[in-house]
Every structure is written in structure tokens, then in C-alpha cells.
Design a protein that fits this description.
single chain; alpha/beta; 10 strands
């Protein structure tokens, strides 16, 4: 397996986001370390475009970031009257109708929604700060491997806002309602040890071992048959919304499909 971005021409490279593809492995990289990979609507649109550009051969997507911080969150320029060049400022958005504001936020969320597609497994590689929108981007992925210097924080509430980039559902699912509320309401940092012990992170390693750990995890996933991983992911994703008996039924149906495929009897 090639290392991230190793001599591979990018499929996409714009607005602080680069996508490279090496057969079954894709890498999405945040590429603005000078600003600690602060986020903007343009970056969110580029993330959404990266998802749409994934070839069908891709099975694992690694999300990583250049520099010492994964992402410091929303670029504070968003809160200025000028906002970003070519973009409506948040003040302008607030003056719009409910439907217009809802549509704008829904568009922003699209960069965060495709990471949990059933046909891929996504892995966030997180070092340093992952704050606000950065925390939510890491939460958008299926798995998180973190450096021992990681600092997660949900700071939206301290700004008078709420987390709105799809992070509340996975956060609550991972750590439970009470801890999720406390993390969001206080805006405190969650460090590596707590992240692993609460299930927020799958693994924490020293910073200099981060790439090796992610490479090993991606290789292990790629070693399993693709269809079995897809079926298993779909089973697990739906489990919390099913009763025990419904999950048993879903397991039987999925296994029947796998057995027929293995026997060459699939549709």
C-alpha cells in the first residue's frame, strides 16, 4: 500500500482539500496548516466534491491533515461582516428566510455526510487540535485513530451556536447523552486517554507512530472481502434503530445473501 499522497496525482486539489486515490485506498487531506486547517464554506463544498469523485474501486478512505493540528474549526472570518470572498456572510445568512437558512446549512453539511456510506470505511487520523467543525469532521468518519497529543473540543455553544455539521448524532452514539451534553455545553478538551476509554477514538499512539497505525488498520480492513465488510457495516449502522428481534432478522437476511453469493447463486 502506498503511503498517503505518495507520488499520486490528485483527483482533487482545491480550497484546502486534496483527494488522492491508490486503487482501493483514497486519502483526503486538509492542506492549510498555516491556518491550522480552519474551515470555510468553500472547504465544505470541496469535501462534498471529494465524496462525489470517489471511484467505485475505493474501499477505505483516510482523512488526514497537514501540520500540527487536524483542524482548529470554523475560520473566524465567518463571523466578520465581510465574511469570505464570494460567500454570503453569516450575518447575511441570518437575515434570510428560514428556508434559505436551512438550505445553506444543509449544503454545508454535505461535506460531512458521505463518510459513513456503506460501501466504504472511513478513518480519521487526528493530531493536535480538532475543535468545533474539526471535531465534527473527525466524528463524520467511521473510525478515529489519534495521536497522543489530540485535543477534541466542541466550542460552538461558547460562541452562542450549536454543533450543526452532523456531529451530534455520532457523538451521542459513541459516548452517551450525558457525556455528550457535558462535552458540548462546557466546550472542554477531551484528550487521548479519555477519547479511547469512552469509545470516541479507536486507538491512540505517539505522533511518530500515527501513519504506521493507520496504514496497518487500513490494510487489515482491505484484507477482508469487500461484500462482507459492506454487509457488516450496514448491519451495525442499523442496529441501534432495530429491536433485538429485528436485528436477528436482519442478520439472517444478510447472511443468506452472503451464502448465496459465495455459492455462486446470488442475483
Amino acid at each position: 500500500m502506498a503511503s498517503p499522497d505518495q507520488d499520486l496525482g490528485p483527483v482533487l486539489d482545491k480550497d484546502g482539500v486534496r483527494l488522492t486515490v491508490d486503487d482501493a485506498l483514497a486519502t483526503v487531506t486538509l492542506t492549510n496548516p498555516a491556518k491550522r486547517n480552519a474551515q470555510s464554506p468553500a472547504l465544505w463544498r470541496a469535501l462534498g466534491e471529494a465524496g462525489r469523485l470517489l471511484p467505485g474501486s475505493v474501499r477505505v478512505v483516510v482523512l488526514r491533515a497537514e501540520g500540527k493540528s487536524f483542524s482548529a474549526g470554523l475560520d473566524r472570518q465567518a463571523f466578520t461582516p465581510e465574511g469570505f470572498d464570494g460567500e454570503p456572510s453569516f450575518i447575511d445568512l441570518a437575515r434570510g428566510s428560514d428556508a434559505e437558512l436551512d438550505a445553506a446549512i444543509a449544503e454545508y453539511q454535505e461535506g460531512f455526510t458521505w463518510w459513513r456510506r456503506s460501501d466504504i470505511v472511513s478513518i480519521a487520523v487526528v493530531q493536535g487540535h480538532a475543535v468545533g467543525a474539526g471535531f465534527q469532521l473527525a466524528l463524520a468518519c467511521d473510525l478515529r485513530v489519534v495521536a497522543d497529543d489530540v485535543q477534541f473540543a466542541m466550542r460552538e455553544t461558547s460562541l452562542g451556536l450549536v454543533p450543526d455539521l452532523t456531529g451530534t448524532h455520532p457523538l451521542t452514539g459513541l459516548v452517551g447523552y450525558a457525556r455528550a451534553l457535558e462535552i458540548c455545553a462546557t466546550g472542554r478538551f477531551v484528550l487521548a486517554e479519555e477519547a479511547v476509554s469512552t469509545g470516541l477514538a479507536n486507538l491512540a499512539v505517539p505522533s511518530d507512530q500515527l501513519e504506521d497505525a493507520v496504514r496497518d488498520l487500513a490494510s487489515a480492513i482491505l484484507a477482508a472481502p469487500r461484500d462482507a465488510v459492506i454487509e457488516t457495516k450496514a448491519l451495525l449502522q442499523g442496529a441501534q434503530d432495530r429491536t433485538y428481534e429485528e436485528q436477528r432478522s436482519a442478520e439472517r437476511a444478510a447472511q443468506a445473501r452472503r451464502l448465496r453469493d459465495l455459492a455462486g447463486l446470488g442475483e
